[in-house]
Amino acid sequence: MTKKGTLFVVSVGLLSILWLAFQQTDIYFLIKKNFSIFSKAYEEVALEYVDQVDPQELMRTGIDAMMETLDPYTVLYSEAQNEQAEILSRGNYAGVGIEVGFRDGEVVIVAPTEGGPADQKGIRAGDVILAIDGVSTEGLQPEEVQGLTTGEVGSDIVLTIQRFGVAQPLDFELTRARIEVPNVSFKSRIGANEEVGYIRLAQFGMRSADEIRTAILGLEEEKELSGLIIDLRDNPGGILQEAVAIIDKFVEPGITVVETRGRKPEYNDTYTTREPILFEKPIIVLVNGGSASASEVVAGALQDLDRAVILGEQSFGKGLVQIVKPLPYNTSLKITISRYYIPSGRSIQSIDYTSKRSGDAATETTSLKTFETRNGRTVNEARGIEPDILKALPELSLVEISLLQQGVYFDFATQFEAGNPSFEETALTDEVWEEFKDFVVRSRFNYTTDAEVLLDELEAELNPVSGVSSQIDALRESIEMQKAADLEQFRSQIAESLWLEIAGRYKGQTGRMQLMLQQDEQVLNALELIKNPGQIERILSGQ
């Protein structure tokens, strides 16, 4: 390089340094300037406003308003919330077994903990929490909602839920219990010849990757597997490093599987595979709307690298990374510092957190772009993880929801088990069905239909009008007749759920899971795929 060229490079370097220094000085000046304005305005309002105001509440309102211009995961923890977080971290608490998130301004259940109080009563991923013990969740952050659901073991709590497709809110009375969730909650060989491995990963906690390795080796002890189903449905995520270590079991070394990119260089990181491949056979990954964060990293990376077929429903779409920074007076700030990016270069973040103020940094939302997998397949950004094979499970009817919600299946199975030493039926018999119908009547089971809600509203509006009460009574009678017929109308679905509840009492948790898998349409679809490796190859090659 010539002397002139060297001088040019040095000059450009100096200009870059000076520009960065100017930018840094500029932002500190703006912080100082606006903090002075804010503090003076705060002081004047606190001291001079016509009505006396609570200075602490006034400041918290200002901070909360500032946070609202950012993403929903950046929140201030008060002193009480900090203490709650410490209790949670020690594990000395009881809850109802739910992971909550934020979508479109609503607090939604990302995933119920398998076997927990919420799961047992039929609460599902995607349910919106409207109120907790009558207290509205409007304006609350997910962390605040999580805190409200924790308490003493054995204490009761009522969650008011809005479910997609059901007009009226549903009240679920739950009893708090200690929640202990293993990482690998279930593993088994399944299929006609038990040739396929099934592993359900409930969360990405410490040693998740080791548990996955142990599960695979254990399943292959008897004979070699022809394929593997990894179930990440309703898995809300967890430790990123564990997600990377799990991907490492299925992908060759030296592959970048996820990057975190933030505004500050220290928050940028690249995670690469290092180990030899542990399992080379076909893999199907199951996801749904409760699969979030680290679950999406695993599913998305294996999809981008054309290593696995993703089957199920669209994932939640949480691709933001947070850290907690201590603040004065035992408060703290949980702040988003980077985003996840998977091998194709796409972000998995699908939640729009557009700022209310045009021009703010937070108005930068994840753009809708398309990317390509290693084999050239098109994948989308800003939508979570979209399955290669979309397979939605059927929605429950209102009567089925209500039977779960009110614990009718559970109570009948308890009564049935007490009077029957064994149960070997492969389906619910007519005799047991009739017993169940009698039990439903005796238990005074009831629920409110959408038609009844509308009729109540109509009656309130027409109350002054004479001559309509008889017609309204006739409509009510018709609705009651329809409700009485609902058990028969949905008999096959109800009988299947009831049989599973009863059979599970006699076969234990492992036997119950085996029975559930035999009825799980997404698992059955995954099994069919593994039986057809040619179809898997065509999907992954983009044909």
3D architecture notes:
It is globular and about 80 Å long. The strands form five sheets. The chain has a six-stranded mixed beta sheet with strand order 8-9-10-13-14-19, with helices on both faces. It has 543 residues and is α+β, with helices and mostly antiparallel strands. About 2% of the residues have low confidence.
Features:
543 residues; alpha+beta; 6-stranded mixed beta sheet; 16 helices; globular
Main-sheet strand order equals: 8-9-10-13-14-19
Report the span from N to C terminus: 50 Å
Instruction: Look at the helices and sheets and give the structural class.
Output: alpha+beta
- The percent range for strand residues is 15-25%
Shape: globular
- Average pLDDT taken over every residue: 86
Major sheet = 6 strands, mixed
Radius of gyration over alpha carbons? 28 Å
Would you count the extended β strands for me?
A: 19
Number of helices in the DSSP assignment: 16
* Helix coverage percent: 40-55%
